[in-house]
Design brief:
It contains three helices and 20 strands. 9% of the residues lie in helices and 44% in strands. The chain is mainly beta and 333 residues long. The chain starts with a helix and ends in a 13-residue tail after the last strand.
Amino acid sequence: MTKLLTFVSLFAGLTATAQAAPGPAAPPVLTVKAARALGAGSTVTVRAVVLNGAEMGNIRYIQDAEAGLALYAQPAKLPGYGELHAGDSIQVTGQLKLYNGLLEMDPVASFHKLAGGVRLRALQVPLAQATSAFVEANEGRLLEITGVPRLLTPAGTPVTALAGNANYLINGQPGTLVRVGAASTGPGGLVDAPPPTETFDLRGVLSQYSPSGTGGYQLLPRLASDLVLGGGLPRLTEEPVPVDVSPTGFTVVFSTLNAGDTRVRYGLNAQELKEVRTDAALTTRHSLTLSDLIPGTTYYVEVSSRNAAGTETATPVPFITSSGKRSRPGTKN
């Protein structure tokens, strides 16, 4: 009887142990800063937002609220990787390594997309502090150097058109290397694009290339849109004017420096613009038709345009419909 009880107790203990045996633990999801602190050779999982697409070749940079990191993979070997583009939120797992000073995830073991269209937030740095931003703490992050007057070659000559795999300096200042990648081509690419001739803001991902492992920081703009005029705001370049004026309406047209939506408020009193028309399409050439207006009447029209950087609004101006009668079905004016 004693032996039987001992056997039953032993069997129950083994069963309980077998039931309690844990499966393989899921890797913890780290912040990018925490993952970077583990260093090369560590396998990590992070959640972050992608900063670029194929305009940088096989590399993707990601960042969260505190830090950034490079990913490197060949799209043919990692399905879906080649389709990742700026604004994609992902969870990614892989091993960290150092490549000429740059900490990157290579190989990338797996990833999955969590969301798309996430707004990218750049760390803004005024020109006077630009060199202080080219540091390890900002590696892999999206920076925006504000108030840039010009780009110069390392030899100090002006730049008329950007070239692929070429280096430049922000206002000729040492320690502010800017490199244009050869893959950023096409209508929106950097290659062959002329740099602005007026003060602009320069966005780019801070990377590093240094065989010694120290220094060698370089800012990598992604597309021509990273050379930002007017702070990125729409900025009116042509005042609103009426065209195709009729007794019952007119078309309001105006232009902006940067693309934005189209908004028109109007009314019979400049202080009471009660009617609103909008067009959500982003453009620099704006046009909206107002109809069903009163013949021979002055309307006050306020135009505005909004994009991710903010809203630009013009002062209301008076437009007058032409004289005549409203047309009725089956009749002419």
